[in-house]
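Look at one record.

>
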Amino acid sequence: QVQLVESGGGLVRAGGSLRLSCVPSVSILSLGAVGWYRQAPGKQRELLAAIARGGTTSSADSVKGRFIISRDNVKNAVYLQMNSLKPEDTAVYYCNEPTGPSLRVGQPWGQGTQVTVSS
């Protein structure tokens, strides 16, 4: 069973930055696209950004221009650089393999990493 390990979260002031890391227990090249998701208290989980095996990226309007997804096949990791953070970015952040619409994913969810943005 594939395990996804997210790290890099923490407490940051509004306007600050964080870089999240996602490391799978298998070769990242065995996955298709990898996406970053978040779930805030009382809200539905949402897909923020995704990067295809070939490097093509996409991102949600809510984070476009602030969050950058990247991957390092040598280090077997996918990153989410988060800049200009806002209090509404507070959530648990997860990575997974998007496989279709409606938040369909290919792997079990990991523990996620908590991001808290103070005003």
Observations:
- The beta strands are 4-7, 10-13, 18-24, 34-39, 46-51, 57-59, 67-72, 77-82, 91-96, 113-118.
- The chain has a mean pLDDT of 95.
